[in-house]
Write a structure and sequence with these properties.
Shape: rod-shaped
Largest sheet: 5 strands, antiparallel
Structural class: alpha+beta
Strand content: 15-25%
Strand order of the largest sheet: 4-3-5-8-9
Distance between the termini: 93 Å
Number of domains: 1
Length: 149
Amino acid sequence: MYKKLQQRKQGGFTIIEVLIVLAIAGLIMVVVFLAVPNLQRSQRNNARKSDANNMLQNLSEYIGNANGSLPSSCTSLSACSWITYKPAQLTTVTYGTTVPATPDKATAYLISGVVCNGVTPTTTGATSRDYVIWYGIEGSTGTVCTQGS
């Protein structure tokens, strides 16, 4: 009788084994779907930071060629001349007369006559030769303020 039981055993997967494999595959899919948006956001933010750093380098070269003068000046943050620069992640140069309360994620603002106060520009303690690049990023801080002089 023992031999009869051994002969009936067929080689296949049980339903429990199949369910375990499906559960593991489902967990892997959930992890991938949760990780991909964070990676994409990080790549976009890195591209914005790179574009802003390129803008600072170009501005430094401009200042050197223009005998130390900036392209615009600022008397107060609310009535300030600014230039927006939008390359691949950020767009084209335009001029304006007011600075928005928070920058959007597609625009980097060059503001002269101000310094960085954490993640926002301020005129307190700034000289006419100071300038900042201010732009929005995705995530908790929302903005980045990079200072030059």
